[in-house]
Amino acid sequence: MPNKMQAVLVSTPGPPENAKLGFTSKPSCREKPGTLLVKVAYAALNRADTLQRQGLYPPPPDASDILGLELSGIIVDIGPNVDPTAFKKGDRAMSLVTGGAYAEYCLVDTATTMRLPASLPLCIAAAIPEAWLTAYQLLHFVGHFQPGQKVLVHAGASSVGLAAIQLILEQGGIPFATASAGKLPLLHQMGVLPTHAIDYTKGPNPYFAAEVLAATDGEGVHLVLCCVGASYFTQNLEVLAKEGRLVLYGLMSGAMVPGDADLRVMMKKLLTVTATTLRGRNIDYKEKLVRSFWTGERKGRFVRGAMVGGREGGKESGGGGYRTNVFRTVGWEEVGEAHAMMERNENAGKIVLAVDPTLDEAEG
Question: Are 212 and 152 in contact (CB under 8 A)?
Answer without folding.
Answer: yes
